[in-house]
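fold-stage: in
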Amino acid sequence: MTGPNLVMQRRTGGPLSRLLASRSPVPTDHHRSSGNPMLSIFTTTRTQIWGTKDAWSLSAFRGSDQLSHEYIVDVEIQGDEKNGYNLVMSPSGHFTADSWHQTKQDALDAAKELFDVPQDVWSDSPRNRNTSI
């Protein structure tokens, strides 16, 4: 998932969204009919972004001299033990991307690796979003 050329593309048809859709077992009713409540936790961070609002990356494109810009990123983890967890990433002014993880801890580890988000800054409410800025 990570690497020097990880490129996030719109969830509506890019290669990343097709790959994620093919691997994500999230059912149509994402609020779960199994009786298990879906976890949603939130945080906000700041990071360097390369690319455009339609195709952004957390690292420079190979062979490109394009400059990065710092953006505020809203980050959310949502899911449950049965269906896995999505790490949802929403840089200000850019499209939202996500990645699927087997466990909550895997999603937390990915947030730490991608955005340097510590585990103690997550909140249960988007209104009371903690921040790692």
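fold-stage: in (second)
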Amino acid sequence: MKTALFTTLAILALMTQGCAATEVFYLDAIKGDCYRYADDDHPVGSHNYKRLATVDCQRPHHLRVIGVVDVPYVDVGRSKGSGDGSAAGGGDVFQALESITEQLNTQIVSAHCQKVYQDRFGVEPPAIVSPGATYLRWFYPDPGQERRRYGGTTVCYVHQGLVIYQLMRGGQ
């Protein structure tokens, strides 16, 4: 009886070896790998997107990385050489420059990831939210410490459209 139990436990251990999800920081995601949000028990839209768990792509997952590219970010309004996020101006000027910088970087990242998507799928990414469509998204480092550590690293990924995404955007 003890031998059979030990054998069963050993087989189960071998079968589940490598099945445990490995948690990774979102900017360390790898092209071709699939991930779910590490805090999967949260509702859609409230995940800590910076914590991902690696999963087999044949199992349910939130996203699949289709490319990791180096993007030349713009840094409008930061003092040259300070690296601490101090602005060339102050207060409202700084906030306006930060907003412009974010918009420019989003456009640059979007263009890079759209090219990755088109190279991979041969079509442009869908622009209208609909259940079941494959959508393009991306992760890129926040200004400051992440940007200093990861530079222009951008993770381009796809995810499936869900009915809830359509509802969240005011769809029918």
